[in-house]
Amino acid sequence: MNTPGHNLPRVLGLWDIVGIVVGGVIGSGIFLVPSSIAAGVKAPLLMLAVWVVGGALSFFGALSFAELGASMPEAGGMYIYLRESYGPMISFLFGWTLFLVIDSGAIATLAVAFSSKYLTHFFALSPLGQKLVSVAVILFLMGVNYLGTRWGANLQNVLTVIKFGALVGICAVIFLFGKGNAANFVTPSTKGMSGMLGPFGIALVACLWAYKGWESATYSAGETKNPQRNVPLGLFIGMGLVIVLYLAANLAYLWVLPTSAIASSTRVAADAMNSAIGPIAASFISFIILFSILGAANQNVLCSPRVYFAMAKDGLFFKKIADVHPKFLTPHISILAIGVWSIILSLSGTFEQLFTYVVFGQWIFFGLTVGSVLILRRKRPDMPRPYKTWGYPVTPIVFILAALYISINSVINQFGNAMAGLGIILLGLPFYLFWKKKSGRTV
């Protein structure tokens, strides 16, 4: 028997939020993105500058999300902030896109990468076997999170510790045993690279995707103990750890590989490790990436169902999505819904294309959410704010401009994909009108 209308219990502590942030951000990006960034900017100092600027911009976004999360510590995160700032239509379109493509596509992408790109390094799998493993990964994550938020958080924490520790170990091994060359940090120089503003911006887009994932911690604010303290602090500690680790990894890569080698590498982490420990590096890196992917996927299954749960509580999604399991106290129908849809996408083979469609749309929602800090300061000046955004209004405005740049860049360079993404988002309008009428909402 399902029990509708119950609130979710607060079972997450500070280090659970840190685990959600670190484990969600560190996926496969730090193993893949450095190559494209190096290929774009060519100079090591510019390459490192991209990671510093990307980290700073992401941290600016986290500063604003922290104020919103501490002020409105409810399940749903961004959905709640968008609703309170712009009304239910914008927030619904965010939740709709999150369910239909963004998080479901991410789960599908990660599950397929787990089975087809990295597990096959150790086991020969037929195409059918790869699909079965992808489905099994999603079912496993669904099952763990269905049984309890504490179970999902514990799994997230274990996977985060493993991959964070492994990345620290990788950096240490490369610096200690790799045949390094300090000249790689400054050669080639930035002299004569006057036309690098465009390539730097393109590289920054890729870098911000490698940093993405921290926002999901706010989805679980309604299940966080002392959220006024733990949501902001968890975001700050988590992002601080990620930024330091990402910079350390790039410095390690540069210690043993010149920028040109990083740019041409398809497995930069494995190539860097190979200089230190030999051919076993490829197997070690593939093994670590398996844990890394699993942690990123688990973060989506752990956090994103809270958005659909909040939508359903507002009467703007299927009513059963708002049910809370009477024993496990989880939004179990919401977890099942995103899991089943992710499995369908993983089997359809269309998820990667769908995912690219909504790149620009997702950053529009990021920019609007950070804009909520500015709007709510005026709209609801008396709202309790246990934490206020550091550097206000400069830090939120800088992040909004960055989000706007990414969206415009996507429209200019991938016009077809951007318009398809806009179509996916706007496809939610008739569904919004249907649920609005059904729930009797007047706005």
Feature tags:
443 residues, mainly alpha, two-stranded antiparallel sheet, 19 helices, disordered N terminus
Characterization of this structure:
With 443 residues, the chain is mainly alpha-helical. It has a single domain, classed as Amino acid/polyamine transporter I, CATH 1.20.1740. Helix content is 73%, strand content 1%. It has 19 helices and 2 strands. A two-stranded antiparallel ribbon has the order 1-2. The two termini are 33 Å apart. Mean pLDDT is 91; it is low at 1-5.
What would you call the structural class?
mainly alpha
- CATH C-level label: Mainly Alpha
Counted by DSSP, the helix tally is 19
How would a crystallographer describe the biggest sheet? Answer: 2 strands, antiparallel
Which architecture would the CATH scheme give at its second level?
A: Up-down Bundle
Number of strands: 2
Q: Biggest sheet: strands side by side, in what order?
A: 1-2
User: What amount of the residues lies in strands?
Assistant: under 5%
The first-to-last residue Cα distance is: 33 Å
Assembly type: single chain
Radius of gyration: 21 Å
Q: What is the general shape?
A: globular
CATH topology: Amino acid/polyamine transporter I
Helix content: over 70%
Q: What is the H/E order?
A: EHHHHHHHHHHHHHEHHHHHH
Name the CATH homologous superfamily.
Amino acid/polyamine transporter I
Mean pLDDT: 91
Indicate the low-confidence ranges by residue numbers: 1-5
